Amino acid sequence: MPRQQLSDALQALHQELESAQEIAADDRQALLQAAKEIQEALSRSEDERERAEEETLGQRVSSLIEELETSHPRFAETLRSVSEALSNLGI
């Protein structure tokens, strides 16, 4: 179930990005990059995940949530769902 929850949250993020018009280009790029990294993390094996870099993907997503909290609360909420699903998967 957590993988499906994460997949649903990623799909929602992509849909919101497609319809958003008032988001800065650098914020849009950061969100797209986070979604790409999350998708890549899902396709890695557990051994590869254990060897992941020092700053975890979850930490980067949390930082992005903080950055977007005021300017784009809808994206921040969607990313919170993604972050929760990552945590449930141990990523």
Q: Estimate the strand proportion.
A: under 5%
Question: What's the N-to-C terminus distance?
Answer: 15 Å
- Strand tally is 0
Mind describing the biggest β-sheet?
A: none
Give the ordered list of helices and strands.
HHHHH
Overall structural class, as computed from helix and strand content, comes to mainly alpha
Number of helices: 5
Shape call = globular
Radius of gyration: 13 Å
Mean pLDDT: 80
Residues in helix, %: over 70%
Q: How many individual domains?
A: 1
Uncertain spans? none
SSE blueprint:
Elements: H1 2-19, H2 25-43, H3 46-50, H4 57-68, H5 73-88
In words, what does this structure look like?
Helices cover 77% and strands 0% of the residues. It has 91 residues and is mostly helical. The protein has one domain (2-88). The chain starts with a helix and ends with a helix. Helix 1 (2-19) packs antiparallel against helix 5 (73-88), helix 2 runs antiparallel to helix 4 and helix 4 (57-68) packs antiparallel against helix 5.
